[in-house]
DNA sequence: TTAATGCATAGCCATTTGGGTATGGGATTG
DNA sequence: CAATCCCATACCCAAATGGCTATGCATTAA
């Protein structure tokens, strides 16, 4: 059972790739060549990273003539947010339990 | 410049490792042997993963006799939450900009 | 229609990574 | 004190990963 978090965390774990995603978050809708500047790697590498981000459901691409525009996918970070709040929830629940325990012990 | 997100995303990108972290979120304060069951890997591998989680600032360990208890670090997910909301922010800002643009065009 | 541009795919290679077994040291139990 | 248990470190190995160059296919520009 491969969780959806797998692809997300994997995709964002590489600095170059996360940099591409961040740039798309800031500037949105950019061509591959447009992303090439700050990436610091060759064009094929950028393409490869974008494909991974796309597979993870983080970005989408749109063809226009000989250009390919990439942009952040709608609800890209939904899975990440959900997972994080679930984990935080467990954490808080345990503190609630501890809290209740202490209250009961206090009586 | 190695961002703090690097270690976090890296650490959580591996399913086995994320599984360990999730288990600690749910149950908190568990020994290495206690974690061994669900992990599905050998004890040395669990220890190695825990070390990586610890280095990433996600968990802490506490020695007690011959047992080592691991638990989720306070504010473990802070960095993750901050990064996510920052990215979401950029996204929303762009929509605000678009919104403003449309309003201005509307006049 | 030729030349140039944008981009993806295909190989190739060095490094990293996740897993295993072997081992040893400290703490507890018999 | 001997046996056992908990856990970390040291190696080793196959597979995955991230980078590169070469190349080819569209699309646009000359």
Automatic annotation (TrEMBL), chains A, B:
Occurrences of domain HTH arsR-type (ranges): 1-92
One Gene Ontology MF term: DNA binding
Entry keywords, A to Z: DNA-binding, Transcription, Transcription regulation
Keyword DNA repair assigned: no
Family annotation (PROSITE patterns): HTH_ARSR_2
Stated name of the protein: DNA-binding transcriptional ArsR family regulator
Organism of this sequence: Aminobacter ciceronei
